[in-house]
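Lab notebook, design round three. We kept the backbone fixed and only want residue identities now. Task for the bench partner: fill in a sequence for the structure below.
Input structure tokens:
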């Protein structure tokens, strides 16, 4: 008999066919408490789950006693309680690599649009405000040759360093848990401590995962150490930055601008103060959101679940130590 799985995000048709060939699939629209309650029997039987968003914590795992594998259509896995999965011997699979270049493109788009005020000025043109030759109040700041600081030099940080260094002649500074030899060799990236990164970066680009350590890593004190001309880019996870402290820093000129793909609460509430600020470029968490990349992520997530439930995991496993226990 085919193993039962719950799919909580819809898939392109060919990938759904592939999933059906291996598993008995129950599809639901999101891993919400209501959907979990409404499909209690499917979760009781599920050996695998596949989707993105929604919390997989101790409480959820009580509803899914047969679970052996979880496959998330994302590289970030901060919504999973990995320790609880480890305790129960459940394999967690994710989708690194396939989205790296696309997310780095998004970060570069945020760098350019916030420095050159692309969104704000386009809105002013559309509103009919371009009536005469523009003056300095429409000017932005240069990107090329400025210092780009990367907080979290992993896969995405490296791809951003490539764009910034080779494409825009930007010196690269970075902070991460350890030195990144490839970034240093290929893009002359200089490792530094967080305080130096804050003080010296013209662009502080965050590509960190959300963990207990990185939660509010950038708060009021850290923002105060940045240059008044600096721009903060966050495409890691919203809660890495204390959002109220950021709003205040953007309002009082502590920093120049921000380009944000991620927020403490998503979707960003319509009454968020960030939306009232001209020096903010807010995006709806589109780091990986191209047709090609989202398809690739879904394909990898399907392959990951098949590998995990057939005991053939070779890559993309968050907790490989669980495999050794089996
Ligand atoms: N906006 C979006 O749509 C997307 C956001 N992301 C986010 O980007 C994150 C990074 O993705 P990858 O580059 O693939 O991951 P990665 O694991 O390759 O890189 C993460 C980097 O962060 C560093 N790091 C972790 N904790 C740290 C700490 N406390 N202090 C300093 N550095 C620390 C690590 O050393 C590593 O260099 C994901 O976890 C996810 O949260 C990823 C994809 C899309
Ligand atoms: O993959 C992730 O972690 C995202 O945030 C969406 O691509």
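Proposed sequence:
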């Amino acid at each position: 008999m085919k193993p039962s799985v719950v799919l909580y995000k819809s898939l392109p048709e060919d990938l759904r066919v592939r999933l059906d060939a291996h598993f008995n699939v129950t599809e639901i629209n999101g891993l919400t408490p209501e959907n979990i309650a409404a499909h209690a029997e499917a979760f009781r039987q599920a050996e695998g789950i596949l989707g993105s968003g929604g919390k997989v914590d101790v409480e959820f795992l009580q509803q899914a006693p047969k679970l052996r594998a979880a496959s998330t259509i994302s590289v970030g896995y901060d919504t999973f309680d990995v320790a609880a999965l480890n305790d129960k011997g459940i394999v967690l699979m994710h989708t690194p690599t396939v989205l790296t270049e696309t997310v780095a493109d998004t970060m570069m788009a945020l760098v350019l649009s916030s420095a050159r005020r692309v969104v704000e000025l386009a809105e002013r043109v559309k509103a009919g405000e371009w009536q005469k030759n523009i003056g300095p109040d429409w000017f932005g700041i240069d990107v090329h040759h400025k210092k780009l600081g990367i907080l979290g030099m992993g896969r995405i940080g490296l791809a951003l360093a490539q764009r910034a260094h080779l494409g825009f002649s930007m010196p690269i500074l970075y902070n991460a848990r350890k030195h990144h030899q490839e970034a240093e060799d290929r893009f002359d990236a200089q490792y530094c401590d967080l305080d130096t990164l804050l003080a010296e970066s013209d662009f502080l680009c965050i590509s960190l995962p959300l963990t207990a350590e990185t939660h509010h890593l950038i708060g009021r004190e850290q923002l105060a150490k940045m240059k008044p001309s600096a721009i903060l880019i966050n495409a890691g996870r919203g809660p890495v930055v204390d959002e109220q402290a950021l709003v205040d820093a953007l309002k009082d000129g502590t920093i120049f601008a921000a380009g944000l793909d991620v927020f403490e609460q998503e979707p960003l509430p319509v009454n968020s103060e960030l939306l009232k600020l001209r020096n903010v470029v807010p995006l709806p968490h589109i780091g990986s959101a191209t047709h090609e990349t989202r398809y690739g992520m879904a394909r990898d997530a399907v392959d990951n679940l098949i590998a995990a439930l057939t005991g053939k995991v070779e890559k993309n496993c968050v907790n490989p130590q669980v495999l050794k226990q089996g």
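Keep this in mind before ordering anything: The CA atoms of residues 7 and 123 lie 40 Å apart.
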